[in-house]
Amino acid sequence: LAAAAIILVAAGGYALYGVYQKGQVEKAEAALGEIITTKTGTDRIAALDSLAKTAPAEAKAGIYLEVAKTAQGLGDFAKAASAFEAVATSAPAGMKTIAALGQAAALSRAGQDAKAVDVLDALAGSAPKAFAMTIDRQLAVTAEAAQQWQKALAAYERMKANGNVQNASFIDARIADLKTKTAGATKANG
Known about the structure:
Helix 1 (2-38) packs antiparallel against helix 2 (41-54) and helix 6 (113-126) runs antiparallel to helix 7 (132-145). By secondary structure, the chain is mainly alpha-helical. The chain contains nine helices and no strands. The termini are far apart. It is elongated, with a radius of gyration of 23 Å.
C-alpha cells in the first residue's frame, strides 16, 4: 500500500510538473508575441535575449529564430549566426539542419567563410540525406570564398555524382577550374 501511495504521489507530481511546464512555455510564447509586436531593431534583440535567459527550453528555439531574423534585418550577421547556433543546440532534430544552414549563411555574410565551412562540414556528416544537395551547394560556394579549393571541389563533385543538377555545365566548369587551382596549390606546396 505504501509503494502504491508513493507511485501515486510521484505520478501526481509529474503531472503537476507537466502542467507547470506547459504554462511556462505558453507564458514565454505570449511574451515572444508581445516583443515581436511592440519592439523593433536593437530593442527587440535586447528584449528577446532577456526572454531567452528565463524561458523554458521548449520555447528557446522560437526566440532564437526571431533573434536571428531581426539581427539579419539589421545587418548584424555575427549576432544572427550566434542565434542560429543557439537554435541548432536547442531545437528539435528536424530543425537543427535548417538552423545550421542559417548559421553557415550568416557566418559567410559576416565574412567568416572559414567558420562557415567548418559548420557545413560538420553538418554534411550528420544531416539527413534530403539535405545533401543543399549542403553541398552551400559548402561549394562557401569553400570557394574561403579559398579552400579541395573542399569546394569535393562538394561540386558530390553534387555531380548525385545527379539531378539543373546546371550541369556550370558544375563541370567549376570542377575544371578547381582542379586547376588544386593542382597549382599542390605544385606550390610540393
